[in-house]
Each structure stands twice: as C-alpha cells, then as structure tokens.
C-alpha cells in the first residue's frame, strides 16, 4: 500500500457498491454513486493502485461445493515459528484463511471440509503435524452470516 491513500465518503460508497456487486461496470458504478464515469474510473484506479482495493473475487457458498463442514481452529505455536507455520498452513488444502491474532492462542484458521471425518484428518493429521504447532482447538461453524457494510459505517 502506498503511503496511506486517503479515502473519502465517495470512495467509501464506491467500495460498498463493489462489495455488494464486484461485477459492476464503471458506468453502473458511477450512476450508483452519483459521479461521472471519468471520476469513477479515476477513483477506482487510485483505490487499486493505493492498495485500498486489493482484488475482486467471487463469493461462493461452500455447501454448494460439497464442503458441508466448516470450523474455526485456534492454533498455538512455538515462539518464533509464525512464518514457517503460516506457510505450512496455507498449503493444507482445506484451510481457507489464516490469521495471526493476539489472544491466548497465536493463529485462527478457517477450515472447510466435506464432512467431519475430513475435518478430523485435517486437524489431527495435517495441522497438528506441522513443526512448531503446539496445540489446536476446534469450533464447528453451524451458520455464517456476512455483514458486508459493517466496516464502512460512520
């Protein structure tokens, strides 16, 4: 990210519109935010080049991909092993997200699996086998709701 790209209310409106529909054309984005197409294009490029907008993705319901079991796994690691442990976690096929956290554990990992058997194998045979991992704790996710605009309110 460049030295702190400034984000104003119009930029926030652009970001919010793209979070709702990342496939908006620049023309539709400009109409929705009530600015000119040239202004929308320039702002979008500035937000991308400044590292504010880091990419565009498709959001997928995991259960439609056969991934019916999801969990958060807390991971406690040995001191000074964060980088190799994080790299190893990223190579585990069922791992969706890895976050370094400040808590009684060191990392929080989101795991998506086909079933509980695969989840058990992922945690007990793959994650716990990573050198530097001391302990794990698993929380099953029963339901998830994404709150897209929470970070953009006042």
UniProtKB/TrEMBL annotation:
<keyword id="KW-0238">DNA-binding</keyword>
<keyword id="KW-0805">Transcription regulation</keyword>
<dbReference type="InterPro" id="IPR036390">
    <property type="entry name" value="WH_DNA-bd_sf"/>
</dbReference>
<dbReference type="InterPro" id="IPR019888">
    <property type="entry name" value="Tscrpt_reg_AsnC-like"/>
</dbReference>
<dbReference type="InterPro" id="IPR000485">
    <property type="entry name" value="AsnC-type_HTH_dom"/>
</dbReference>
<dbReference type="InterPro" id="IPR011008">
    <property type="entry name" value="Dimeric_a/b-barrel"/>
</dbReference>
<dbReference type="InterPro" id="IPR011991">
    <property type="entry name" value="ArsR-like_HTH"/>
</dbReference>
<dbReference type="Pfam" id="PF13412">
    <property type="entry name" value="HTH_24"/>
</dbReference>
<dbReference type="InterPro" id="IPR019887">
    <property type="entry name" value="Tscrpt_reg_AsnC/Lrp_C"/>
</dbReference>
<protein>
    <submittedName>
        <fullName>Lrp/AsnC family transcriptional regulator</fullName>
    </submittedName>
</protein>
<keyword id="KW-0804">Transcription</keyword>
<dbReference type="InterPro" id="IPR036388">
    <property type="entry name" value="WH-like_DNA-bd_sf"/>
</dbReference>
<feature type="domain" description="HTH asnC-type">
    <location>
        <begin position="7"/>
        <end position="68"/>
    </location>
</feature>
<dbReference type="Pfam" id="PF01037">
    <property type="entry name" value="AsnC_trans_reg"/>
</dbReference>
